[in-house]
Amino acid sequence: MARKISFINYKGGVGKTSLVVNTAAALAKQGKRVLLCDFDTQSNASIWLLKLDRWNKINTSDIGSVFSIFNKGAQLRELIHQDVVEGRAGEKLLPGLDLLPTTFNLVDLESDFEFDPAQPPYLTFYEQLATVEKNYDFILFDCPPNILRASQCGVFSSNEIYVPANPDALSLIGFTLLVEKLQKFHQLTASFRKGTMGPPAQIQGIIFNSIKTGVDIEVPKMRMQLRLNQFKTAKRAAPTAKIFDAQIRDAMVVRRAVALGLPVALVSSESADSAAAGENVINDYRKVAAELLQHVKS
Ligand SMILES: Nc1ncnc2c1ncn2[C@@H]1O[C@H](COP(=O)(O)OP(=O)(O)OP(=O)(O)O)[C@@H](O)[C@H]1O
Ligand SMILES: [Mg+2]
What we know:
The protein is α/β, with parallel strands linked by helices. 42% of the residues lie in helices and 11% in strands. The chain is built from ten helices and seven strands. The chain has a seven-stranded parallel beta sheet with strand order 3-2-4-1-5-6-7, with helices on both faces. Helix 5 crosses helix 6.
């Protein structure tokens, strides 16, 4: 059974996409079979991993984006880009990392799109995902900072939720709002959960990102821990939920990796200094992946 995991926080820009892409890469490098599903209409993860030319072809065509499952009756398995990371000559650079891409048309799911209330998009997505699940160890969902229709597809299909956060008050507010909205979503969708689906996904962890060297994050971390404890007591987070020991440092190479269309682990360095800095942050992602592997399944 694949572990299906949403990365989400109601605060934008905390590093959800960077964390999903680089953790997915770290897992694939260890030989895990990983599918990354992009549910953010901004398409950041898709543009990052496909690079602009390949992504543009999908964006200008009628089909190929995850949205075509809903408006064109496309089959999810036909939309997957296997071993998505390619070099200039089309050579496969990271076997094991597959992508279900989105384009900007996913925004239409939020407003114009009409559906049978008995068959909401998240249920259609769940059913389609079931056809490929056996091919993967991990299915990761990059969600926008909300639980609207696109995001609901990832959340409904997940068995675990992790919350990327920065060490600041806004991330804490985003986390709090997420827990509230998550509970409402689970209540609203309870009648659609069949016995074989397992229980709705609970918050399993918080992962701090973009930690600057020399900045003490003990106070924001303590505040986050207190809030998490309150949610655990109220049974609004899993009893096993924790703040990850592993955290991602702030590093220029993360921003560079986006421009190069590569996960950080595949970016080659221009100097010994940048190689060392790159290795440090690659190691951070490896540690997150290792902690994820050890963390209890919900
Ligand atoms: N560890 C890091 N070090 C340096 N820059 C980072 C790091 N993590 C993320 N960034 C940068 O911060 C910005 C926001 O990151 P990212 O896009 O991953 O956040 P997000 O939470 O997915 O945003 P959104 O809510 O818009 O989807 C990007 O420019 C990214 O390159
Ligand atoms: Mg993002």
